[in-house]
TrEMBL record:
Active site: H449
Catalytic activity, as annotated: hexadecane-1,2-diol + 2 hexadecanoyl-CoA = 1,2-O,O-dihexadecanoyl-1,2-hexadecanediol + 2 CoA; 1-O-(9Z-octadecenyl)-glycerol + (9Z)-octadecenoyl-CoA = 1-O-(9Z-octadecyl)-3-(9Z-octadecenoyl)-glycerol + CoA; 1-O-(9Z-octadecyl)-3-(9Z-octadecenoyl)-glycerol + (9Z)-octadecenoyl-CoA = 1-O-(9Z-octadecenyl)-2,3-di-(9Z-octadecenoyl)glycerol + CoA; 2,3-di-(9Z)-octadecenoyl-sn-glycerol + (9Z)-octadecenoyl-CoA = 1,2,3-tri-(9Z-octadecenoyl)-glycerol + CoA
Name by which UniProt lists this protein: Diacylglycerol O-acyltransferase 1
One Pfam family named in its UniProt record: MBOAT
Subcellular location: Endoplasmic reticulum membrane
Subunit structure: Homodimer or homotetramer; both forms have similar enzymatic activities.
Tagged with keyword Transmembrane: yes
Originating species: Cherax quadricarinatus
GO terms assigned for molecular function: diacylglycerol O-acyltransferase activity; retinol O-fatty-acyltransferase activity
Membrane protein topology class: Multi-pass membrane protein
Annotated GO CC locations: endoplasmic reticulum membrane
Domain of life: Eukaryota
Length: 525
């Protein structure tokens, strides 16, 4: 109480109120009201000081004990060993080394996987048979393997040659104005539409694997030819602009100076052996781009100096081994789980459906992670090494993404770079808002994902499209959560969306496909 009274008496507001009370005893009612208001303020100030005094008695933080008290305790003959500190698992401790818990999580995950594998083997037996996957390449009632899929893929060269000759005509100004845009748009539209027609009419001539490969190859070709056409258009525009500028200038000292600078730039380009437009318009250059592990065309790709034999052999071995592991996991783990979910989906037993979907989530996610490593690390690095392609930035640390938007920017860099370069930036240049450009990117991505699933399965739904479009509000929600609760919770949302989101939706599509066909021989069952 003495400390409290001293604190209150030393406070300037308290001194003002006391002096004000002493000096205003004989004044009017207006001054009395002011004094009453000041007294209320003094009461709240007194409560604040009381709370502050209570907090000063807390010993949960090390910095609340003064250095003088620490030295005084150490000078005592009892040899003290205690000092103010927090427990390690308290947020205020500042401890952040949890490698042991990470190892524990990996061990628990491994033991859980082994238990599920043993349960699967005891229940279904060993179902792994690599020879049964050959049935994917032929009709279930025929003995000859399909040759239609390779022929269809070879026919894609027609589009490549057409794009090559079209660029030559554009370089020679044989086609001008808006006709260029309409011709390119029609060509790219036909490129995507041909598999829809052919695979829809002559379905029996192509296996499921063949239809899937055709759609993937034609989608990649669509994105690459889009980039090839747009980059050459940029080069033509730059060349045309320089010609117009040079015509407007008179023969003056400034023009001579600019001409000297251009000659110097040309000399540097020649010394570096850089290809200039339209010298890049060759079939060799175009086919190198189509084979390279990138979707964005450039006139001069960065090249490596040599092929690293050991690195190449390791990546090729990974492609072979992981491919067989994926097929084995699909045979042993995914197919039985999908078959067991037929009755639950048919009866609309929601609890049973939820149990089946959750049971599919873990093996499906392990399959997806293995596929990611196989595709974006092993396979793309194999291609890059064989083609002397030096840019190996195929992915970033998406597993540390603090929100869903960061994940989409990091996990598939070839597609992300293409979308930013050929859709997002051009739309921003045309004065569209950032939100409109982002939504346009998601719409195109959702449409292509739906194309890759619906066309091979002949199930024309919009489930994958809607699943992709749900990512737009999920990006906003995860960003807000990360800003308010920290990156850890945002990263949990990313992993939850990966485990229970789009991969699970794709499994539902395949489940519906199996319900539709009801022919187990196609999978070698």
């Amino acid at each position: 109480q003495l400390q409290l009274s001293q604190s209150l008496s030393c406070h300037p507001t308290c001194r003002m109120s006391i002096s004000s009370g002493d000096s205003d005893e004989g004044k009017s009612s207006e001054n009395g009201a002011i004094f009453f208001k000041t007294g209320v303020q003094n009461q709240s100030e007194e409560n604040r000081v009381l709370r502050q005094l209570r907090r000063t008695k807390s010993v949960t933080q090390a910095e609340q004990i003064t250095e003088v008290e620490r030295k005084a305790r150490l000078s005592q003959p009892d040899k003290p060993i205690h000092k103010p500190r927090d427990s390690l698992l308290s947020w205020s401790s500042g401890f952040n080394s949890y490698e042991g818990f990470v190892n524990l999580g990996l061990l628990v995950l491994m033991l859980g996987g082994i238990r599920l594998f043993l349960e699967n083997v005891l229940k279904y037996g060993v179902r792994i048979n690599p020879l049964s996957w050959l049935l994917w390449m032929k009709h279930e009632h025929e003995t000859d393997f399909y040759y239609h899929t390779p022929l269809f893929l070879l026919a894609a060269n027609i589009h490549v040659v057409f794009a090559y000759h079209l660029e030559h005509l554009l370089a020679k100004d044989k086609i001008r104005g808006n006709i260029e845009f309409y011709v390119h748009a029609a060509h790219l539209g036909i490129l995507l539409f041909i598999p829809v027609v052919i695979l829809g009419i002559w379905t029996h001539m192509f296996s499921l694997l063949g239809r899937t490969v055709i759609c993937i190859i034609y989608t990649i070709l669509f994105l690459k030819l889009w980039s090839y056409a747009q980059v050459n258009h940029w080069c033509r525009s730059e060349k045309s602009w320089r010609k117009k500028v040079s015509r407007r200038r008179s023969f003056s000292f400034r023009k001579a100076q600019d001409h000297a600078i251009n000659e110097e730039e040309c000399d540097e380009t020649t010394a570096l052996n850089l290809t200039q437009y339209p010298d890049n318009l060759t079939l060799g250059d175009l086919y190198y781009f189509l084979a390279a592990p990138t979707l964005c065309y450039e006139l001069n790709f960065p090249r490596s100096q040599r092929i690293r034999i050991r690195f190449l052999l390791r990546r090729m071995l990974e492609v072979i081994v992981i491919s067989n592991i994926l097929l084995a996991m699909f045979q042993q783990w995914i197919i039985p789980s999908v078959k067991n979910s037929f009755k639950a989906f048919s009866d609309l037993d929601y609890m049973r459906c939820a149990e089946r979907l959750l049971k599919l989530a873990i093996p499906n996610h392990i399959l997806w992670l293995s596929w990611f490593y196989l595709c974006f690390h092993s396979f793309l690095n194999t291609l890059a090494e064989l083609l002397y392609f030096a840019d190996r930035d195929f992915y970033q640390d998406w597993w540390n993404a603090k929100d869903v938007g960061t994940f989409w920017r990091l996990w598939n860099l070839p597609v992300h770079k293409w979308a930013v370069r050929h859709i997002f930036v051009p739309m921003m240049t045309m004065k569209y808002s950032k939100t409109s450009a982002s939504v346009a990117v998601f719409i195109l991505s959702a449409a292509l994902h739906e194309y890759l699933v619906s066309i091979p399965l002949h199930m024309y739904k919009i489930g994958v499209f809607l699943g992709m479009m749900v990512q737009v509000p999920l990006v906003y929600i995860s960003t807000k959560v990360e800003a308010k609760f920290g990156p850890r919770l945002g990263n949990l949302i990313v992993w939850a969306s990966l485990i229970l989101g789009q991969p699970l939706g794709i499994m539902v599509y395949y489940h519906d496909y199996m319900v539709k066909t009801l022919d187990p021989n196609i999978l070698g069952l």
